[in-house]
Structures are given as structure tokens and as C-alpha cells.
Amino acid sequence: MDSSSDEIIHQWGSYIRVYKEGRVERFFGTDKVPSSIDSADGVSTKDVLIVPETDVSARIFIPTATIDSGHKLPLLIYFHGGGFRVGSPFCATYHNYVTSLVAAAGVVAVSVDYRLAPEYPIPACYEDSWAALKWVASHSNRKGPEEWIRDYANFDQVFLAGDSGGANISHDLAARAGIENLNGNEVIGTLFSPSIFWD
Description:
By secondary structure, the protein is α/β, with parallel strands linked by helices. Helix content is 24%, strand content 29%. The protein has helices at residues 92-105, 124-137, 147-152, 165-177; strands spanning 8-12, 16-19, 24-26, 43-51, 56-63, 73-79, 108-113, 153-163, 189-193. The strands form two sheets. The protein has a six-stranded mixed sheet with strand order 4-5-7-6-8-9. A three-stranded antiparallel sheet has the order 1-2-3, with no helix packed on it. A hairpin with a 4-residue loop joins strand 2 (16-19) and strand 3 (24-26). The relative contact order is 0.16. GO terms for molecular function: hydrolase activity.
């Protein structure tokens, strides 16, 4: 066996290890909580594929009582942290965090899964997140393919949020949204937080 296959060129705490031959091991954010309708916490979730070519996807969260009510709620678009290298909206840490936000704030949330470094170097995470934001914005005026966003999101109350690297993405997208067209929609607020998972 070639000894270079075990040579570590980068290790970031207990979260990720990168080997010289290109192999990447992640120790955080690789678990997946299944989406569910009418869960015990009062929040329903579903997963959507946004950009098939790059596998950009998202998990949508909605208070279960809102489904079939016709009631529109503020829209929160969330970008997970993890230093652009780890994390996912589907892992327990971020699934539970966004679920608690949705339950407490009474919002529709779209938590974006963007491509991670080092396999996809920056700016891939920004490009993926911008594509996701534009996809969400395409649902305004009751258009777009995803009924939970189209029918229950109030596009007069759009917020971007994230922690750690996701906060950086949120900031970048808020600035970009102020310059480029988002189907006539505006981001009215951003929420940034430090990482929610560092030990």
C-alpha cells in the first residue's frame, strides 16, 4: 500500500480530515434525519432538489398547522455553518436547530445544502447558495414548482440567516440581492450567529 494514501495534509479539529491522495473524511454532518410530515414537534419537513447538475438541494420546514390553512408566514432562508467544509441541513444538528427556529418564530424555512470544500473550492458554496436563493424567489406571485413555498411563504418578509460560514454566505447574498434582480423580491433582514456546534 502506498504510504501517501494515509498521509494527512489537513485536519480541522475533530470535524474533517483530508489526505494527500485526495480522500476526504468528515466526522460531522454526515448523518441524515429523515424528513417528515406532522412530526411530534409541530414542524413538517420535505426535501427538494434545486439544481440537479450540482445536486444543490434544500430541506423545507413549515409549522404543520399552516399546511392547508392558506395562511402565509415570513420566509427564512438558512445557510448552515461548518467553515464551508462540513455540515448539512439534513444532519441532526441543523435539522433540530432549524426545526426549533420554525416552531418558535412561526416561519417557513428553506435550509440550503450547498457543495462543500475541499472537493468544491470556494466560490462553489456561494454560487450554489445564490442559485438556491434565486430558485426560492421564483416562487413569488404564486409561481414556482414547490407548493409549500409558493402557497405559504410571505415574500414581503424574506430573511436570510446562517451561522459561521453560513453567516458569511448570508451576508454575501444579502449584498448581492441588493444589486441583482431577485424576481422583484427584496431581502428585508439578515440574522447571523456564531457557530452552533463548535465544542
